[in-house]
Specification:
It comes from Allochromatium warmingii. The chain is built from 15 helices and 13 strands. By secondary structure, it is an alpha/beta fold. A seven-stranded parallel sheet has the order 3-2-1-4-5-6-7, with helices on both faces. The chain has a six-stranded parallel sheet with strand order 10-9-8-11-12-13, sandwiched between helices.
């Protein structure tokens, strides 16, 4: 089977990283991948091992010329189907191009942002199937009018690379990279620096928590347009000694097991790949009960869930977890078990392949 993947993201995290995992799994199963992505993006370099990479100009949702670019590529590559992995114009322009070329097309929906019903009725008509990465996103799509028979749910996956807890020396070395003492209680927030990720709610909860737990250190991992605003809020609240913006880290996978807790106070979230990564590393989580997060974070099993934008509830949940190291260890062990049980790479790849075969069979093709 030959699949043309279209991904408009320029950075190798979130959806782009999931697309890379999928292409690697497909290649290992003997399928051929072709990737259309922005020229020079991080995904292009990483995917060269498992896909024929075609760098294209991609300028976002208003880039109507992406339709003829993708149409010409489809005609040249002659894939069995097209898989659209992102918005950023790929969902609509890619759908139009695939329809013009007469090739079956699938779109993966990774966010739970609401869309007007008229847009859902028009846009998803372009796609033979819509894959939601969580039941939460699936519920949003059905509520907005997507026909149930068009929806499939295939959860995102996480690479299980953590075979054992860190030694004391390893833990100290990795914390030193972040200028964090070995004895500190290290909290991480792993998210783009954008409003809907809710960093401000943790900042509001911290002053009282620091009074009870002065050993707390917080690192915001990620980049985004709110960086300057968040730094101003940190400085204005006098939190600079405890909270730092750590930026985008290529060594995040190595740093994760050195965290004591991950906090994700988002206002909306499709699933939260960073939460899957944290759980796989054995790190307990406190997060908002929104979107697909309750699928990634199980209350009392891998972490605690709180109402979104509720600073008092967030503070109370953090107080419970911070006060009990044994409880944190139990939640971390629960996270490892959940990831191995329900979020494996093999399950994600096989789930996507099942949708491919279903679509090709319905189109009269001969899936392999």
């Amino acid at each position: 089977m030959k699949i043309l993947h279209v991904e408009g993201g320029r950075h190798l995290y979130g959806g782009a990283y999931q697309a890379l995992h999928l292409m690697r799994g497909l290649a290992a199963r003997g399928h051929q991948n072709v990737l259309a992505c922005p020229r020079g993006c991080a995904l292009a370099a990483a995917a060269a091992e498992c896909a024929d990479v075609c760098g294209l100009p991609m300028h976002g949702d208003a880039d109507l010329l992406l339709i003829p670019r993708l149409y010409r590529l489809i005609r040249a590559v002659r894939p069995d189907l097209v898989h659209l992995h992102s918005r950023i114009g790929a969902d609509v322009m890619g759908g139009c191009a695939a329809r013009l070329a007469g090739v079956p097309v699938i779109h993966t929906r990774r966010v739970d942002n609401p869309e007007p019903r008229w847009l859902v009725a028009l846009k998803y008509r372009l796609h033979d199937r819509v894959i939601a990465i969580s039941e939460g996103i699936g519920r949003v799509l059905i509520a907005e009018g997507l026909p149930l028979e068009q929806l499939r749910v295939v959860r995102s996956a996480v690479e299980h690379r953590y075979s054992a807890p860190l030694t004391a020396a390893e833990r100290a070395e990795r914390r030193a990279r972040l200028q964090v003492p070995a004895e500190a209680c290290l909290i991480g927030v792993i998210a783009q620096l954008i409003p809907r990720k809710g960093h401000r709610f943790l900042l509001a909860a911290l002053p009282e928590l620091l009074t009870a737990h002065p050993e707390i250190q917080v690192r915001f991992f990620g980049q985004g347009p709110l960086a300057q605003t968040l730094q101003q809020q940190i400085d204005a609240a006098g939190l600079g000694a405890a909270v730092q913006l750590a930026g985008f880290r290529d060594d995040l996978a190595a740093l994760l097991p050195a965290l004591d807790l991950v906090v994700h106070p988002a206002l909306m979230e499709g699933l939260g790949v960073s939460l899957l990564q944290a759980a796989s590393a054995g790190v307990p989580i406190v997060a908002s009960r929104v979107g697909g997060i309750p699928e990634a974070v199980r209350e009392g099993e891998t972490g605690l869930l709180v109402p979104p934008a509720d600073v008092a509830a967030l503070r109370a949940a953090l107080s419970v977890v911070l006060a009990d190291p044994e409880y944190r260890r139990a939640l971390g062990a629960g996270g490892r078990a959940l990831m191995a049980r329900e979020f494996s790479l093999d399950a994600m790849v096989d789930g996507n392949l099942a949708v491919y075969r279903e679509v090709l069979t319905a189109a009269g093709g001969a899936p392999t």
